[in-house]
Design goal:
Distance between the termini: 26 Å
Shape: elongated
Helix content: 25-40%
CATH class of the largest domain: Alpha Beta
Strand content: 15-25%
Number of strands: 19
CATH architecture of the largest domain: 3-Layer(aba) Sandwich
Structural class: alpha/beta
Radius of gyration: 24 Å
Bound molecules: ligand BES, manganese (II) ion, zinc ion
Largest sheet: 8 strands, mixed
Length: 478
């Protein structure tokens, strides 16, 4: 998408859709850009439509020849906060995309740096569709040009675009069917980012086994599609301010294994690599933004499947850090894959490790679909992530990590078992992960709720959301 600014008279701008931002309770001010009789008629229409200016609210009408544009939309900007601007811009872009609008004008007022970034993020996220497999005539043309009527921070647009490109890549990978997105192809997507200061190392299943990664090996061994381990590294040209590691869950399909999921629980399980897709998306943005921070992106990619070779209940795995794990449920596979990645990451001597995973249904029960669950025993790191997610308009909620809940993970024959009881299932999963990080400040985000939605949410189409890409890019740049 191309972004330009315009200072032309609004009613005379030729475009396919003119969207006017309206703060709550400030309709008259927003409409004052029009001549009085048009402003009066639009105010009456808004009232009839019960348009209230709430963040993301939208009213869209034909312009009936009274504007140069054929259609006009009012979009709610609520209190004018950064996040309300993001949602307003997103609602306008989503409506525009649904109508095949290729030239969109956004009159959202003057936007400072943060609001410029938010508006572009909202537009890009709201306009996103996954339509690769739709018939040609069922696809809507992408928006080509967005013109801001009002002042914006043009330099910030490039930063926002880099974030948006990373988020879109994550969404495409998560939406992609597991028949296309499997360990080898997911690793190949990461490998594509190599060059320009980024290096990417990919291990095959033999190297994974030889390295002693018993978790990745076991979960991946039931599939026809061999596992991969991926380590992406961004090293800035000069000195690095910080050294950060992102770790993602990369289960390209989670059937549950021998502890097979029922159909309803399985049908969206192509989303189970959303953590690693977010890591790839962040690394994509990092490559564009070239921060003076060393960033590592790590994931284990596996398919959790059934076959004669699948790992079994009662198996005891020896993990990369030497701890042993008794398998009580093959559907608690993500933590096994992550555990090996985390203990590998722990050796890098970084300032922080953050992992992202569609780890537990229990996180969705606890917080619903709108929140990611944040776990960390490092106050400073938790605070940094909450600040970043706040700026990105993503909902992250800190959860407790009570040591005594580890009781639930006590095994009969090994160091740990791979599940606790039903109570606090997202917490015991986090406590399990913690056993594999010894010296690095660490945080875990359970993104099982927001990573993939069966229904559209706000300006986001149904399916993958690319959650945490905007937050983590901000965290890295901070
Ligand atoms: N991938 C699932 C978790 C999940 C559930 C992600 C819903 C997205 C939406 C994970 O591997 C899993 O199956 N977890 C089990 C753990 C249980 C066996 C301890 C769960 O949540 O039921
Ligand atoms: Mn599972
Ligand atoms: Zn899973």
């Amino acid at each position: 998408m191309d972004y330009v600014t315009t200072s032309a008279d609004i009613a005379g701008i030729a475009c396919d859709l003119l969207a006017i931002g309206v703060r709550q309770g400030q309709l008259d001010a927003a409409l004052s850009v029009f001549e009085p009789s048009l402003a009066r008629d639009l105010a009456a229409a808004a009232q009839a439509d019960e348009f209230d200016g709430k963040p993301g609210a939208l009213a869209l009408w034909p312009a009936l020849g009274r504007l140069a544009a054929p259609r006009l939309a009012l979009v709610g900007l609520g209190d004018g906060s950064t996040d309300a601007v993001r949602r307003g811009a997103g609602a306008a872009a989503s409506a525009a995309r649904n109508r095949g609008v290729t030239r969109l004008v956004l009159a959202l007022g003057d936007l400072d740096t943060e609001r410029t970034i938010a508006a572009v993020e909202g537009v890009e996220a709201g306009a996103y569709r996954y339509d690769r497999f739709k018939a040609e005539d069922a696809r809507k043309a992408p928006i080509g040009t967005v013109a801001f009527a009002g002042s914006v921070d043009t330099a910030a647009i490039e930063r926002a675009k880099a974030i948006a490109v990373g988020q879109r890549l994550a969404r495409d990978l998560v939406n992609g069917p597991a028949a296309d997105v499997y360990p080898e192809t997911l690793a190949a997507e990461a490998a594509q980012l190599a060059g320009d200061g980024m290096t990417v190392e990919v291990w095959d299943e033999q190297q994974i086994r030889a390295a002693g990664m018993g978790g990745i090996t076991a979960v991946g061994q039931g599939s026809e599609r061999p596992a991969r381990f991926v380590h992406m590294t961004w090293k800035p040209a000069g000195a690095a301010r910080r050294k950060l590691v992102l770790v993602g869950k990369g289960v390209t399909f989670d059937s549950g294994g021998l502890s097979l999921k029922p159909t309803d629980g399985m049908k969206t399980m192509r989303c189970d690599m959303a953590g690693s897709a977010a890591v790839i998306g962040v690394m994509r943005a990092v490559r564009d933004l070239r921060p003076d921070v060393e960033v590592h992106g790590i994931f284990g990619a596996v398919e959790n499947m059934n076959s004669g070779g699948a790992y079994k209940l009662g198996d005891i795995l020896t993990m990369y850090n030497g701890k042993t794990v008794e398998i009580h449920n093959t559907d608690a596979e993500g933590r096994l894959v992550l555990a090996d990645c985390l203990s590998y990451a722990d050796k890098l001597g970084a300032d922080a490790i953050v992992d992202l995973a569609t780890l537990t249904g229990a996180a969705v029960i606890a917080l619903g679909s709108d929140y990611s669950a944040l776990y960390s025993d490092n106050e400073a790191l938790a605070a940094q992530l909450l600040t970043a997610s706040d700026a990105a308009g993503e909902s992250l909620w800190r959860m407790p990590l009570p040591e005594h809940y580890k009781e639930q993970l006590k095994a009969d024959w090994a160091t740990l078992k791979n599940i606790g009881g039903r109570e606090g299932g997202s917490i015991t999963a986090a406590l399990f992960l913690k056993e594999f990080v010894e010296k690095t400040p660490w945080a875990h985000c359970d993104i099982a709720g927001p990573a993939f939605r069966e229904k559209a949410f706000r300006h986001l189409a149904a399916g993958a959301s690319g959650v945490m890409v905007p937050s983590l890019v901000r965290w890295i740049l901070a």
